[in-house]
Structure formats: C-alpha cells, structure tokens
Amino acid sequence: MHSSTFSSNYDESCLIESPTSPYVETTSQRCSLRKVNPLQTSSNATSTTSEHNKSDVSYVIVTKLVSLEKSTNILISMIKQLMAHFRLTKPISVENVPQIPIDSHEDLDNLEKFLDVKENFEYMVNTLSISGGTTITQITRRIIAKLITNNYATNYNWAGRAPKRAFKSLKTKNLVVATVKAVESNAAINLIENSIKDWLKLSSVRLTLAEARALKRNISTASMD
Known about the structure:
Layout: H1 2-7, E1 15-16, E2 24-25, H2 38-88, H3 105-114, H4 118-128, H5 136-147, H6 150-153, E3 156-157, E4 165-166, H7 171-183, H8 189-201, H9 203-224
Helix pairs in contact: 2-4, 4-7, 5-7, 5-8, 7-8
C-alpha cells in the first residue's frame, strides 16, 4: 500500500528498495526523489500532441501546394501550346499532306519534299504545336513521336554513324526544332537537339518494350478464351 501511494506522487525511475527503507537515493546513479506534477505531465503530453498536429497540417499544406504547382505548370504549358497554335493558324489550303508517323524511307521522302514548300512547313509546325509536354524535353519527344515510329527511328542516329542514317541533316529535324521554338520561344537549340538524340538512341528500347507489352496482352487474351 505504501509503495502504491508513493509511486503516484514521485518519479520511481531512480528509486531502489533497501533493507532499512523502502526507497533510498542511490549515490552511484545520482538519483533523487522528484515530486511528479500530474498537471505538468498532462501539459507536456498536450503540447506534444499539438506539435504533432501542427506537423501533420504543415505536411498536408505543403503536399497540396506541390500538387497545385504541378497542375499550374501543366496548364501554363497547355496555354502556351494553344497560343502558338492559334498564332500560327492561317487559312492555308494544303494538299497532299504526307501521312505521319513516318514508317518507311518512302514516307520520309514524301515528307521531306512536302516541307520544301514554306506554307507546308508552317502548316506542319501549326499541326504539331499542340503535341503536349511541360518541359522542353517532353515537348520535343512528343513532337518527334508524332512524326516517326519507333520502328523506323531505329534506322537513324544524330550524326549518321554507319550503318545508320543521319537525322541532323533532315528537314524533319528542322521541323521538330521550329515547332518546339514556336511553343517555347526561349528554348535552347542544343537542348532540343540533345532531346532528339536521346529519343533516337532509345527507339530500339521503346520498340522492344512495346513488343513485350503486345505479347503479354495476346497471352492474356488467349488465356481468357
């Protein structure tokens, strides 16, 4: 009974029992009897809970702000592309527009000839200017993906190292650069070109992944039948 009453008012963390007294101070541990204030303990617990709540609220606010910033960036990019599209829109009568994406040498030859005419070039810039993307790299990749299939892109690298052909000498390359610049006028040419280089390098990887996904779908469909 004595122990129970004592422990309700004192901190027992430094107390030990001895033959002469139920509780004594231990010199080696430098402990002392401390009166425990129940109100102070409750106040500390409340303060800790309050701090946790504030932390949780701050985390939610920061998360929402980050999400809002991402959404805003996407909207800004879409607005820029729409502005570029309408700014370039002209009542041009264009005939014999080549089919895209390009998937053969013949397709490419047709597009290259088509781009020789200034009005045709501007028409294609206008058409591709709403391809999407929020960064220069994303915009570039989406534009070139609309122009060339992964399958045909495996025939090209930037400089034309054998056995592949050079992409940098094509009017199609100029079209990609001009379209990105129409959307982002301050876009650096070297950044656009580097994005094209990377896209071409990874064309075989994308093709392999696409074939693997198609095979997986076919297997899944067959198993369901």
